[in-house]
Amino acid sequence: MLPPSPKKPPQNKLGLSHAFLQCADLILPWLTPQELANVSLTCKTLHRAAHSITLYRSLDASRSFENFPIPFHNTVDQYPYAYFFYTPSQIIPSSSSSSSLNRQFWGPNSSQTLVLPDSGSSDAEMGCTLDSMDLLGGSWVSVMDESGCECERCEKVSEDNVIGCPCMELEGDEGMGIRSECGPSCGCRLECGNRLSQRGIQVQLKIVKDVRKGWGLYAAQWIQQGQFICEYSGELLTTKEARRRQQIYDKLASDDHFSSALLVVREHLPSGNACLRINIDATRAGNFARFINHSCDGGNLSTVLVRSSGALLPRLCFFASKDIKEGEELTFSYGEIRVQPKGSKCFCGSFSCLGTLPSEHT
To answer: Beta partners for 72?
Structure first.
């Protein structure tokens, strides 16, 4: 006599289970780490789904926006990744950005869905795709004019040794950390040799947690001197807003678990009588460059202001100032030290370490 065949679950239960998993795939990537942890305690199915999202996030901080995945490596504590809003370029926060910086999709197909704004946002502010100009409650920095070269192949000097690409003529003194590149209105394409910082990262990197310094950016391969590393992206702030946030960050700096990523860059104009100040805050929204730590000896990265022809504002970019070995941490100098009684300690480990992290004079 044959044993009874196992009972199959009712078809309607299978359908409900499938629908439940589909809903989980749509909702869980919007959750914060704490919310994911709470959800994972409810049932085995959601525990597995939440674990899958956590693993996915730890494997790529860039949400697939970059040419290579940038994984997290943490053997220090139980937090497998750092949570922040990702933007591959500078953004201008809107007046309501504090309320719209609520959610960002971080899961499979992250590069296709960016931000979930508040319910009061219009369709134009939804920021659902990378092609949209609205991101994180703000907009991409794209103010520019129509100036640009008409070169098919840009060179400093043409074949007849008379004149080269006009975009390269704007290049400043190398010691100033300024370079010019072709822009959106130029006739050349992305393959142009004068668009070094516009093709995304070309080296493999990783984010590693240190017991004292916290998260840091490390080379996952050998990097040659002069190689473009990345742009420092984040919210582009007015000086008034930067000062307001810096005061808040200074108060929070006493907590060892908090670290701000507000960078202030000053470009001295050719006249010498004025200075252009650029405030980029990657504390809440930025790219993987926010993990680059300070080194009192200057580190192995050089900061360069890159101006693209026709663009209103320059971009802050990092280049390798020396050959960098695989596994070596990428660092640069945050600037001059501002003595504070409660200043954050520096753990750069260099022979010239001053013991305190630089803090911007706002």
So the answer is: 207
Which candidate, 321, 133, 326, 91, places its Cα nearest to that of 220?
326
Domain residue limits, the chain? 16-59, 91-140, 168-332
Cα radius of gyration rounded to whole Å, the chain: 24
| CB distance 122 to 159 below 8 Å | no
Per-residue burial over 10-48, b if 16 or more Cβ lie within 10 Å, else e, is eeeeeeeeeeeeeebeeebbbbebeebeebbeeeeebee
Is the domain defined by 168-332 classed in CATH 2.170.270.10?
A: yes
Q: Tell me: the pLDDT tens digits for 318-344? A: 999 999 999 999 999 887 666 555 667
What single string gives the DSSP state of each residue in 237-248?
Answer: E-HHHHHHHHHH
Phi/psi region, residue 56 (left: phi>0; alpha: psi -120 to 50; beta: rest), is: alpha
Q: Encode pLDDT of 96-124 as tens digits.
A: 544 455 788 999 876 554 554 444 433 33
Q: Which residues contact 240 (CB under 8 A, 6 or more apart)?
A: none
Cite the beta strand spans of 28-101 per DSSP E.
Answer: 72-73, 85-86, 91-93
The answer to whether 190 and 318 are in contact (CB under 8 A) is no
Q: Which residue type sits at 266? A: R
